[in-house]
Automatic annotation (TrEMBL):
Protein name (Swiss-Prot/TrEMBL): V-set and immunoglobulin domain containing 10
Species name: Pelodiscus sinensis (Chinese softshell turtle)
Broad class of the protein's primary localization: membrane
Domain Ig-like: 1-58, 62-155, 159-252
UniProt GO MF annotations: cell adhesion molecule binding
Highest classification ranks of the organism: Eukaryota, Metazoa, Chordata, Craniata, Vertebrata
Subcellular location: Membrane
Gene: VSIG10
Pfam family, one: ig
Cellular component terms (Gene Ontology): cell-cell junction; plasma membrane
Topology relative to the membrane: Single-pass type I membrane protein
Amino acid sequence: MEWIFQQPGLSPEMFTKVNGSSTVFTLQNLSLDLQGNYTCTARNPLSGSSRTSAKELLVYYPPPSVPGCWAQTAQVGMMLQLVCSWPGGYPHPILQWTEEEQDLENSSWVVNATGTGDTHVETLNSSRLFHGKEFKCVGSHILGQGTEELTCTVQIKTPSLLTEPLKTCFVGGTVTLTCRVTESNPPARISWLRNLSHPELEIQPGGRYLLVQEGSVSNLTIQNCSHGIDEGYYVCKAENPVGLREVYVSLTVKKPVNIVGVVGAVVILLLLGILVISGIILYYNPILCLKGSMFR
């Protein structure tokens, strides 16, 4: 009689004890690699017949780290998703979302708040969310019974915006409007609007408009500024399932100043002033001017 471990390349530390028609197989120093199927084979040395029986060994181990949780926006609809992840253990842990020390499972607006798996996602309707609301994910494992439960928390926040309220652009020039989200959980979606009479009409990239977003900063670049088309108010909008914030940017489009003409006019006025003063001095005292003592 013998035991066979059906995983090549491993030699587990084992002890086999045969007692008449039975055998006892003992494993020591269990590791994760020893999880799998074990087969007991019995052979009759006279007839050559054999029988086998397979057993599966499950090695339980808790996740090596602590639970991690965060908030995100659902891909479809403005819904809040609470994500709790605690991977690396066997079997899967039990994850439960709670709200202000109240079980979400007993609430009428949340369904199935407790799940078994490495990751548990709970989707909430935004109608009952508000700024600063906190949620807690509680994780438990079969090997951690009787010990302190491991938790992580998420605090949701309405977006906060920071921008320059006044911007100026010269006709034919380029200007960049910047909008920065200073606080938001989950991350906010940033968009720009131009026509205040159609507040849902967003500016799309292309043509004279260039939209670039890096992290929580959105830049709207307007090329070839036009006084009649581009001057006016622009709206930066940041939205997440918790709330909506908008800030206004006033853009003024001016005609470029002719610097060469201004400098030329100033030079001409200075020369005229010098000629006038010189003429007055020559008229009243020509001898004084000739002697070089005009300043006396």
